[in-house]
Amino acid sequence: MKVFIRILFIVYATFIVHSVSAKEEEQIKPDYLVFGVVPQQSAIKLAQNWIPLLNFISEKSGVRLKFSTAKDIPTFEKRLEEGAYDIAYMNPYHYVVLSEKVGFKALVHEKNKKIKGIIVANKNSQIDKLEDLSLQTLAFPAPAAFAATLIPKANLKNKNILFEGQYVNSHDAVYRNISEGRFIAGGGIMRTFNEYPEQFRNELKIIWTSDGYTPHAIATSPHVNEHTRQQLSDAFLAVDVLASSKELLSPLGMQGFQQAEDSDWDDVRSLNINMMLGQQ
């Protein structure tokens, strides 16, 4: 009888432990997906611009999204590789590398849009064309910033223009450093340039614009299931039919979204860019 009672006690205790563990696991399991945004601008500005859209997507899809970014682009790249983001807005080169290396799957990208790199200079400088940049030190956001670093650099090298490059962590930092005279010129993209405060943007001029490429991807990590992907995709595609879509999209400089296919970024793959992510 004592043995029987002891067995019952062990079974009961085991049941209690497993029940508590299950409850604890349920409590710590996040009920949201982390949405990472490449830090082309300050975290405050990104949060202001993206959170209203993510709130709409969360409500429309039933999938809660939590905004996140990083202190700089190399840190963002490292977090992408480490799986810190469930879904992310990443530049075309990030997507090309991480779709193969990590398994990110394209969901949507901005519609009616081709991303173009630019080189800007101080408005009061004598810099008016690429050849004027010979032997100068130029500002770039980060080594793997696609349109703002890789494309301008490639074009300068193709023209045999010798230059030095320094990385300043964001597009806004490029524009700020040039307007304040610390660099003669640097790389950016049209969207972030147009969003830069007008009083400072007026101190800059665009001296070169690249060809257009498939824009940034919104892509999910491999552990996000197809049902969730479909919910999110439907929500993003519904944004531009809303009466309030302008309020959500204008801060981002976007017109809306379209369904994405992995092959959309074959134009970027054709460039055969070979560079490590996460490098400063």
Structure description:
The chain is α/β, with parallel strands linked by helices and 280 residues long. The protein has 11 helices and 11 strands. The protein has helices spanning 2-28, 43-61, 73-82, 92-101, 146-158, 171-179, 190-195, 198-201, 226-238, 245-249, 266-269, and strands at residues 33-37, 65-68, 87-90, 105-110, 117-122, 136-140, 163-167, 185-189, 204-209, 217-220, 257-259. The strands form 2 sheets. The chain has a 6-stranded mixed β-sheet. Strand 1, helix 2 and strand 2 (65-68) form a beta-alpha-beta unit. The radius of gyration is 23 Å and the shape is globular. The N and C termini lie far apart (71 Å). 39% of the residues are buried.
Structure summary:
Helices cover 43% and strands 19% of the residues.
List the helices and strands and how they pair.
Elements: H1 2-28, E1 33-37, H2 43-61, E2 65-68, H3 73-82, E3 87-90, H4 92-101, E4 105-110, E5 117-122, E6 136-140, H5 146-158, E7 163-167, H6 171-179, E8 185-189, H7 190-195, H8 198-201, E9 204-209, E10 217-220, H9 226-238, H10 245-249, E11 257-259, H11 266-269
Annotation keywords:
alpha/beta; 11 strands; globular; disordered N terminus; 11 helices; about 280 residues; five-stranded mixed beta sheet
Q: In what order do the strands lie side by side in the largest sheet?
A: 2-1-3-10-4-11
Q: Helicity range of the residues? A: 40-55%
Radius of gyration: 23 Å
Shape: globular
Can you write the helix and strand succession as a string? Answer: HEHEHEHEEEHEHEHHEEHHEH
Would you tell me the overall average pLDDT? 87
Kindly state the number of beta strands: 11
The N- to C-terminal Cα distance equals 71 Å
Number of alpha- plus pi-helical segments: 11
Regions with little confidence, pLDDT below 50 for 5+ residues = 2-29
Report the β-strand fraction as a percent range. Answer: 15-25%
Look at the helices and sheets and give the structural class. alpha/beta
Largest sheet: 6 strands, mixed
